Amino acid sequence: MNRQPQRPGFPVPGEGSVCRNDRGQEHPLIAPARDEELVRVQSWLQEHDDLPELIGDAVEDAIFYILDGWRTHRFDFDDDKVDSDERRSLGTKLQFHVIENLHLVKMRHPDTRIADVGVEIKGTIRDNWAIPKEGQCGVTLLIQIDTAAGHQRSSLMRTHRAWLRDGANNDGKRGVASNALHEFSVPLYDWHRLRPNPLKLLSTGQLAEVFGSESQEYRLFWLFRYLPSVVVPRAVVLTVGANKFDPLRRVRALRPRLKDAGFALICGQWKAQRKLAADLGHDLTGAAWVAVPWEQILGHGELSDQVIRQIQGLHDSKSYYARLDADRGRPL
């Protein structure tokens, strides 16, 4: 077997060559199709038909967390008010949300285990990833995010030292050689659109209402009234709720009032509601919400009946109205 040097843009060593990583370990290079561990991880991930949505939801949650919209009134990740350190932190925040959405266990190193294989999770808003010394030669989930275009894609790769760039940064991390990325990564899915941040659709006056000094119920009600048939991710509800006590419960309590206004408020937390929303063209992955005209949830057979029972069975309207009016002191 031959040990071959590599440089970005030059041919990289392939199967039959030896990789020696920065930890002093040597092993032969194996093509992805014959890498049993990588294939196991790939199979497990691709069993999730909604993998693009699950990872997309994790990306959105990580972005909302960094923007901290309630405190900063920032709703655009590409805004000049978002500094470079915050942008770089996206990959770290993303790890936690991906692990949560895929119901995995967070570890120190590697980041998690999938199909009994250690897996690193790396995200980037550029065209490459920073692979640390301890991540060399391990199976890595590579997530690429284009915030300006509003989409993301992901692939798997065993990030062998032989397939990384020779130049390391100050932390000893190395980028993936472009030729190796092209030849030895395994795409999981192509570019998949992120849901737009609905807060960016509000006018200045509407933002003032939604982030005003009125009660939580009042502001959440107007959030959905101003954005009919627009998906509102859970992170947006938490942002508007200002991390106060159980804003998601407050949203559920809005259903009777929104029904009086002619809207059905449905949530992706429930399978039937998620299915009906998908039939209407709305992606409610990650327990997102959408307020649709009430007539749109009719005419879907048993699915309509199930959703209506769920919506109307969750709250007693009279007691809700009494409490809401008492809390707010004035009608909506």
List the helices and strands and how they pair.
Layout lengths: L17 E3 L5 E3 L7 H11 L4 H17 L1 H4 L11 H5 L1 H12 L10 E3 L2 E8 L14 E8 L4 E8 L5 E5 L5 E3 L1 H7 L1 E8 L10 H7 L5 H11 L7 H7 L6 H6 L2 H6 L2 E5 L3 H9 L9 E5 L8 H12 L3 H12 L4
Parallel strand pairs: 4-5
Antiparallel strand pairs: 1-2, 3-4, 5-6, 6-9, 7-8, 10-11
Helix pairs in contact: 2-5, 2-9, 12-13
Question: What attributes characterize this protein structure?
Answer:
about 325 residues; 2 domains; disordered N terminus; 5-stranded mixed sheet; ECO RV Endonuclease, Chain A; two-stranded antiparallel ribbon; Arc Repressor Mutant, subunit A; alpha+beta
Structure commentary:
Helix content is 38%, strand content 18%. With 332 residues, the chain is an alpha+beta fold. It folds into two domains: 18-193, ECO RV Endonuclease, Chain A (3-Layer(aba) Sandwich); 198-328, Arc Repressor Mutant, subunit A (Orthogonal Bundle). A hairpin with a 4-residue loop joins strand 5 and strand 6. Helix 2 crosses helix 5 (90-101), helix 2 packs parallel to helix 9 (234-240) and helix 12 packs across helix 13. The chain is elongated. The chain starts with 17 loop residues before the first strand and ends with a helix.
CATH fourth-tier homologous superfamily of the largest domain: DNA mismatch repair MutH/Restriction endonuclease, type II
**CATH class value of the largest domain:** Alpha Beta
What about the largest sheet?
Answer: 5 strands, mixed
Task: Label the structural class.
Answer: alpha+beta
Shape: elongated
Radius of gyration based on Cα positions: 23 Å
CATH architecture of the largest domain: 3-Layer(aba) Sandwich
Strand neighbour order, sheet with most strands: 3-4-5-6-9
The count of DSSP E runs of length 2 or more, i.e. the number of strands, is 11
User: Kindly, what is the distance between the CA atoms of the first and last residues, rounded to a whole number of angstroms?
Assistant: 75 Å
H and E order: EEHHHHHEEEEEEHEHHHHHEHEHH
Low-confidence stretches: 1-8, 315-332
CATH topology of the largest domain: ECO RV Endonuclease, Chain A
Mean pLDDT: 89
